[in-house]
Amino acid sequence: MYFRVTGFLMMIMMVHGFAFAEADILENELLRFVLDGNRGAYTLESKEPGLPGCTGSFGEMVTVAPGEAVGANSLVCASGGCLFAFTLKPGRPFLEVAVSRASDAPAPPSGVLETPVFVTAFNTAPEEIRILGCDGLKDGTASRAGYTFLAAAGPDGKGAVITGWLTQNRASGIALSENVDGKPALRGRAEYGLPRHLPKSGEALESFAVGLFADPLAGLEAYGDAIAKANGIILNKLIPSGYCTWYSQPHGGACDQKNLAELAAFCAKHLAPFGFNVIQIDDQWQSGRARPKESSGPRLGFLEHHPRGPYRDGIKPAADTIHALGMTPGLWFIPFAGDPANDPAAAHPEWFVKTAGGDPYYVYWAGWSLDMTHPGARDYVRQVTHRIMKEWGFNYIKIDGLWSGMATTCLYPEPDYREDDLGGAVFADPSKTNIEAYRDGLALVREAAGDDVFILGCNIAQNMRTLGASMGRVDGMRVGRDIGADWGNILPCVEMGSRLYFLHNRVWYNDPDCLMLREPLTLDQARAWASWIAVSGQMNLVSEWLPGLPAERLDLVKRSMPNHGLNARPLDLFENGTPRAWLLSKGEGAAARHIVAVFNWDAQKEQKIKVPLARLGTGSLSCFEYWSNLPVATGGNTIECVLPPASCKIFALRQVVDHPVVVSTSRHVTQGMVDLLEEEWDESSRTLSGVSRVVGGDPYELRIALPPDAIYNAITHTECEGGIIVTRSVQDAVARVRIESETSAPVAWRLIF
How many domains does the chain have? Predict the structure, then answer.
C-alpha cells in the first residue's frame, strides 16, 4: 500500500460509525471471512473441511466499519491511504474485494490500486503448487503478474485458491503472485493508467474475487459464471460453425466475388446439412491507401470496397449471395483505427487519440487509434458499423485490432505481462481511462450493429488487456493467436483455448482460430485439431479451399460440426502445460453419455496416456473409440493407450447396464451428443428405440453396447421411419446398425433383441 492512514481520515471514519473491533466476521454457506481490526489481520476459510485457506495482514491496526454502514454482507477498513471493501454475498463462492482511494489521502504516485495480499495455506511445499494464468502453468515459487486471473492448485489438483477480476470497466485487472514466508500469496492490482483516474469512496469500483475450492476446475468454472453474473452476460446466440477466408490456399485473404460464389454454393450443398452456417470475408476487401512501409498494415477505408480489389461489384452482392443460400454472411474490419491520410479522417485530425506531443497515436499494424471519447470519431465508427450491417446486410462481424481502441502498445503474440504505455495516450475526454474509452467503443459497435448481430473480437494476443476489458461487450473472442497449416502454429491455439476454457460458453464463445486441414499437416494432425475443436466446443471456422480439399480431410469438417453447445473440461489442466485429456458429458445416471478425448501434442514422440474414470461414477463402462471405429476395454476403470506423435483418440463411454445401449454413433466426433435425440429401452418387448438426426446421403451407424451376460446377442427385427436400415451385425459385444436416408431429418428406429 502507498500511504499511512492519516489522523484526519481516522477521525472521519469514527464519526461515520467506524470502530476498532476485536474481530468482524462475514460468512455465508460456503466461506467465512474474519477481519481483526486490532491486529490488522484477516483470514478466509472454507466451510468444507480440508480445503486450503488464506491469511493476510495490513501490518497495522485498522479501523473497521460494520456491514450496515456500507451495505449488507460487507465490511470496510482503511489502511495505507486506501479503503478496502470486503463483500460475501449469500450463496456465492467468492469473497469480493474492492479498493478505492481515501478522499483525504495525498495524491498517489501511480495510477494503480492493489488489494490486500492473500497468503495461501496448502500445507505443502510451494514447489508442489501449480499456478495457472494466461501465460501458462508455473509452480508456487515464482513471482509473476498475469492478466485478469491466477488460479493456484495443490498437488494432484486437490484444493484450489482462485483469484481474478470480476469487472474491468475503468481499470485493467492484473493478478499477482509472490512468495510470502515460503507460501504462495495472491493479490489483485487495478491499473487505471493515471493517478487522477483512481476512484474515491462512493465511486464505482472494480471487483476482485477470491474463492476456495476442492476442485480447481470447478473453481475456474465458478469464476467464469461469476464474471458473467457481474457483467450481466447472457449468451443467447447459436455458436457459429463455418468458414473464414483468410488462411485459405488458394483464394485466401478476402477471397473474391467469383470464387466466393463457388465456395458458398459448395458449402450450402455439401456442408450446411452438417451444421455449417457462416461464411466470413476477411481483410483485403476494403478501400484506403496502401500504407507506407514504416507504418505497414491493412488498408483502413471501411466505408467502401476497394474499386480494384477482389469485390469490384461491391461487397453487398457477396452478402446477398451467402444470404440467398441460407447462410450467414460475415465481414472483417478494424473499428477503432483510422488512417490520417484517408477520407474522411484526413479532414478530422481531432478524431484521433494523441500522443503527449500532440501527434496521432499510432499502434503497430492496426493503425492510428480513433478516439472513442470524441463525438466525431464515434459518429464515424457508428457510420461504418451501420453500413456493414444495415446497408450491406452482414449479420456477423469480426472486429480486429481491438487494442487500438484503448491506445496501448501491441504486445503480440506472447501473453506475459509487460509495459504497454497504459495512461500515456491523450484522449479528448481526460476523465476517461484507456479501458473506459475502449469499452465505450465496443458498446458503440454493439449499438450500431444491433443485438441480433454476432460480434467476434479479434484478438487477445495483440494485447492481453483486451481479455478482461472486452467481457460483456462481444459474443465471441479470438483467444488463439494467428494459426496456419502447421503443427507449431496450432499448439499455441490449443494452449490458450485450454487455459481459458472456463470463459467459453459462460462469458463468451472462445474462438481458438481456424480449423486447418491441408498438407503439410498429416491426416493425424488434422484429425487431432478437428477433434479438439469439436470436443472442446469452441468456435469452428475452417479456412481451407473446401471445393478442392481431399475427401478424407473434408470429412473432418463434417464430423466436427455442429457445435454441441455443452461445457467440456481439460482434466489435466493443472498437470500438463498443454492438457492431454478432455471430458465432455451429457445426461445423468445410467443415461449419461461421456466423451474422453486424449491427445499427444508432441510431434516427435509417442506418449502413453492413462485417464482414471472414477469421476464418471462407479461400475463398469462400455467404451468405443471413434477414429479406429472399434470397441475398447476399460480395465480397472481407466483408459490407457499409447498415442503416436501428434495424434488423438476419442472414446465414447456409457455405463454398463442390463440391456443394450447406444454407446457411439458415426455422425459426429462426440458420438451421439448432437444427433441422438431420443433413446429408450422397453424390457417387455426387448426393444431399443430412438430418434436420430440423420444427414441426407451420409450413412449413419449406431454402435450398441450389449450387456456381458449374452442375453441380448442378436437383433431379430428392425424398423425405421424416415430412413432405411441397410445392414446390421453383432461382433465383440457391439451391435452395429447402419441407416441411410435421402433427406436430412430425424429418423425413428426400433431394434428388437
Answer: 3
